[in-house]
Structure formats: structure tokens, C-alpha cells
Design goal:
heterodimer; A: about 140 residues; mainly alpha; B: about 180 residues; globular
């Protein structure tokens, strides 16, 4: 039951991305066509406000609810993993019009076809770990 | 109430995403959606085939609860908060899509040309859906994050690996949108 708060945070996230149409295939298409500011505005304002938040996290002036310092796990270093992995992800993002969060939100909206996309993404995550010793990182 | 029922503008949505991120860190967790794909694989028994998946998935139960919430949030907004599913894309975008064979672009959140039940049960439609998902899953775990972990958290924390990943997201997205979509459709 201690996890129940994460259900409510998830509900908020699902509603925000739904209402801002981030889950719409068309919004992703127009973003990559540079035909609208909408998605750039969302990601940009999230990153801008996020920078302020992380400044206070890293400074230690905002702590967790039990008073611990908030530690942000650094991302794994490496050029190949980020550029190749990122490019593969981008190909899928533009084709599906959905990244992992929106895939689940669309499931909640009753979009049956997204089940196939989610199964594909599980296969992809599985195969990456099956092959990763052979891939450049 | 009227304001809630309208599509929300970017300057509302962006800061609210940061609020979600704040709550997750405040409760001692992190903001990253694509790692749930690994957790679901682990629950499904992937550890029998690939050692990586032998981790104790229960430590990620909070993140699956978060995902359950996003599904519920999607349902609630669909059932109660979105009287009109029109997406106000530009006439230029509608025209570009019409040239690709997409009809009534923007009339609903998703194009029938990809997401209708008929398309899902056609061979080409099925391959597009499963292939798109595959690329998202493979790429996000290869890069170690998706839009949430890299584009939002990583960039906010001024991480170089995230900047490289986001550049990759755009290289892939631009290749798909400008070069491949016209070949696929």
C-alpha cells in the first residue's frame, strides 16, 4: 500500500500527457516536420523548470520526504550507446508516434492496436539485453 | 471546468511534467518510464533466457504502480476530460499527411492508417506496429533512457550522455519522418 501514492502521480502524468495531446501521433509528426512549437514548448518548459528543480535538489535545499538528500543517478557514459540507441529510439518514436509513457496512456484510452506496439517494445528491450555484449557502447 | 476540457497549452503541460518529476524524486524514486519494459520482461520470466533479467523486479513495483496510474489517467481523461478529440494541426501538416495518404488528419488523436483495428489485422499494419514498438524498446534500453529519463531528467541535470541521446532521438525521428514514412505509406 505504500506504493499507492505512485498510482496518483501516474494518474496526473497520464492526464497531463493526454490533455496536452502529447500522446497524439500527429503531435509527434508535426514536431519532426518543424510545423508547430507545441511539443518543443512542452519539452523545453519541462527542462527549464526541471533545471531549477534540479538546482535545488543538487544544492540539497529540497530533500526527500524523509529528509534525505535527493541523489540523481548519473547516466551511463559512452558515445555509441547514446547516439546509436537514441537514433533507433527516434525511428520508433516517429513511426509509433508514441514513446513509452504515451504507449501506456493510450492503452488506458482503449486503443487496441497499442497492445501490439507494447509487445514490440518488450521484445526490443529483451533483445537488446540478449545482444548487448555484441553491441558497441 | 471549461479550461480543463480544452486541450492544455504547452506552458501548462511542461511545468506539470516537472511537478510529476518533483513528486517522484521527493518520494525517493526517479523519473524513467522505459525501465519498466525491463521489469515487465523480468516478471514474464525473461531471466530464464538472459541473465540480466534475473534482478529482483519487486524493487521496481513502485514504477509499475506509476505505470498503472498512467493507464488509469489515460482512461479518466478519455472518459471524462476530452469531449473533443480533434488535434489542431496546421493546414500544412494536414496537406503533407494527405499526400502520404492519411485522410482526415487531426480529426482524432490517432490516424486510422496506423491504429485502426482493420490496420492492426493487416500484415503491413501489424508489422508497422510491432516494428515501431521494437525500435522504441530496443533503442531506449540501448541508450539507457527514453524521453522521460534522457530528454527531461538528463537535460535538466545537464548530462552529456542525455544530450547525445536526444540528438540521436532527433536523427532517428527526422530520418523516419522525412525519408522513411513516404516510403512506408
Amino acid at each position: 500500500m505504500k506504493n499507492i501514492k505512485f498510482l496518483f502521480i501516474g494518474i496526473l502524468f497520464g492526464i497531463v500527457l493526454s490533455k496536452a495531446e502529447v500522446i497524439s501521433w500527429y503531435r509527434i509528426y508535426e514536431m519532426f516536420k518543424f510545423q508547430s512549437f507545441h511539443m518543443y514548448g512542452i519539452i523545453g518548459s519541462a527542462v527549464m523548470t526541471g533545471m531549477v528543480l534540479f538546482y535545488f535538489f543538487n544544492k540539497g535545499s529540497i530533500k526527500t520526504y524523509v529528509g534525505d538528500k535527493i541523489e540523481i543517478e548519473p547516466k551511463k557514459k559512452g558515445f555509441s550507446r547514446n547516439i546509436i540507441g537514441g537514433t533507433i529510439f527516434g525511428l520508433g518514436w516517429a513511426l509509433a508516434g508514441a514513446c513509452p509513457g504515451p504507449m501506456f496512456i493510450l492503452l488506458g484510452r482503449g486503443v487496441a492496436a497499442i497492445v501490439v506496439v507494447i509487445i514490440g517494445s518488450l521484445m526490443g528491450a529483451f533483445l537488446y539485453h540478449a545482444l548487448k555484449s555484441k553491441l558497441p557502447h | 471546468m471549461e479550461f480543463i476540457l480544452q486541450p492544455w497549452p504547452w506552458y501548462i503541460a511542461g511545468p506539470l511534467i516537472t511537478l510529476v518529476m518533483f513528486f517522484l524524486f521527493f518520494f525517493g524514486k526517479k523519473f524513467g518510464v522505459s525501465s519498466n519494459l525491463e521489469t515487465i520482461c523480468a516478471i514474464g520470466g525473461a531471466g530464464n533466457l538472459v541473465d540480466f533479467f534475473k534482478f529482483d523486479w519487486k524493487k521496481n513495483a513502485w514504477n509499475l504502480t506509476f505505470i498503472a496510474g498512467t493507464i488509469l489517467g489515460g482512461y479518466l481523461s478519455y472518459a471524462y476530460l476530452t469531449p473533443d478529440e480533434t488535434v489542431a494541426i496546421s493546414t500544412k501538416t494536414i496537406q503533407d499527411l494527405s499526400e502520404l495518404g492519411f485522410q482526415n488528419a487531426g480529426a482524432r488523436y490517432l490516424p486510422n492508417e496506423i491504429f485502426s483495428i482493420e490496420t492492426m489485422f493487416s500484415l503491413k499494419g501489424f508489422l508497422i506496429l510491432i516494428g515501431a514498438g521494437f525500435l522504441v524498446g530496443f533503442g531506449s534500453r540501448y541508450a539507457g533512457g527514453c524521453t522521460s529519463g534522457h530528454a527531461i531528467v538528463g537535460l535538466s541535470n545537464l548530462e552529456l550522455p542525455s544530450l547525445i541521446s536526444v540528438i540521436g532521438f532527433f536523427i532517428g525521428g527526422l530520418i523516419m519522418t522525412w525519408l522513411l514514412l513516404p516510403l512506408i505509406f
